[in-house]
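Weekly structure sync, notes
Attendees: PL (lead), two postdocs, one rotation student
Agenda item 3: pending single-chain targets
PL asked that the sequence for the first pending target be pasted directly into the notes so everyone works from the same version. It is reproduced below exactly as submitted, 555 residues in total.
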Amino acid sequence: MFLDLAIAFSCAAVGLCCGWVMHGVGWLLSSDEFAAGQTSRVTAELEQVKAEQERLSIVADRLRDYAQKMAIDVDEHQHNVKAVSDVLSSDQSLTADAMIEAVNDLIEANETMQTKLHSAQKRIHAQAEQLESAERRAQTDALTSVSNRGAFDEHLTRRHALGPGRAGTLMLLDVDKFKKFNDDYGHRAGDEVLKVVAQMLHARLKSYGIVARFGGEEFAAIIDGYTVDECKKIVESARVAISQHTIDFEGKMLRVTASIGVAETIDGESAAQWIERADAALYHSKDHGRDCGHWMNGICPERICLDDEDQASEPFLIPEVEDRGPDDAEMQKDGETRRNSSKASSVEEEVPQDKPKNAKSSFDDELKAKPSTDAEAAKAMSAQPETQSHPKTSGSKPKKGGAKPSAAPADRGAFAGLPGRAALAGAFCELQERSKAIGMSTQIMALRVNGQPAAGSMRTLLQIVRATLLSVDRIGADDANTLLVCIPGVDEEAALERAEQIRASADTVQFAEAADGSGSTLQIEVVQVAQTETFDEAMTRLADCFVSPVPASAG
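Predicted structure, written out during the meeting:
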């Protein structure tokens, strides 16, 4: 009897041990498979970067070859011209036919050189465009189409060098429980989540600073030209918008939440330490329930809260759908392209507060809802201040507790959600440095509608202009009738082409009658900014181009 019981218990114990061992082995295999999947994705990204570097090297070699060939052609032309010159200047008396032949040789040499120069110029221009496009792709995350980590690190270094009070405010955002999307619905679902989050951040924060994929499911942004209290509202409004959206993935409704950490740089800290403090604020949000934000007040994390009015009106929201320009489309040819553009556009807009959180909105619904949405945004933005790009050095101090600034800006009507001229001037210096680094110019475009245009038509104009913007461009508003666009790294011809593209698209917009009674009420002017010229000097020149001038100084 006892022997039978002992045998039974022994068999049970052996079975439990075997089961535990098999479970451990299965877990290890699962972990190995996950690690292998992660390694393959990292390897694929590294291969893509390597391919881009090789392509850049090939294009650069071609440019050097063209330059050498042009030098040879110029030498040959100089030799031919010298030969003709020697004949004409010789002491020998020349017949009329000999003189005519010498002149014809000179004309032929000039025409041949002109043809070669024109052909070389076209080839170099094409190669330069490929080089610029490859450079943009090298700085763009292939999956999400926002800036990648390398581009962000360069931008962070430049901003940090400006010092406390001028560097801006750093935000790190992490998608909560991201691995669950991959585990439950597959990696395609995870990719879709990252795309949607990136699109929403880009649409809302682009006008305030850079947005980048920091790594994995983390994103980063630097907001410049605003006080820390304003920056907290800007990024928290974007985070709340993400948390209020659901993503329709193959019929499954995915709800995404995110946590953020915010920090200003302080005296004596490095760029890496700046990131560490923002990261500490982010993980404080993770440790306190996720779906929230904290900012580092020195070394003390504090919760970011929006009051009811902020949540209802979202004063820093950029409601218009952000379309990609032609250059951005080119950037995506070799990378990950957007699928189902109507769905992608619909998630860039926030679900209105009076709808359920899981409600879906289409692109057409967003366009129909824009008048009320923009009207609310304009009303809420009427109290937004026109802050200087260096708020601390100008004597303004952030108010504790997220109190609203009391300064009232000039009325910008339907453009109230855009940065004003002072904020745009703050970003201009960095754009100038970027243009100088690649040997190109910065252009400033002003679009002004005379008379008293309807708010709806101005919102339509803003959408048209935004559709032409690239990730490096900056847009702002000077008043209710005037849009300003800073375009770095392009020549005047390219800027004028973009202006004509906007004008052609705006021909269908019904503006109010101009003050002078003329039929065309939209005026677009472009000025090329010299490398030593300031923003205000360029704006003064731009004002002279208008029939109804842009004010020479910000209101």
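Discussion points:
- Residues 1 and 431 are 90 Å apart (CA to CA).
- Residues 2-138 form one domain.
Action: rotation student to compare against the earlier draft before next sync.
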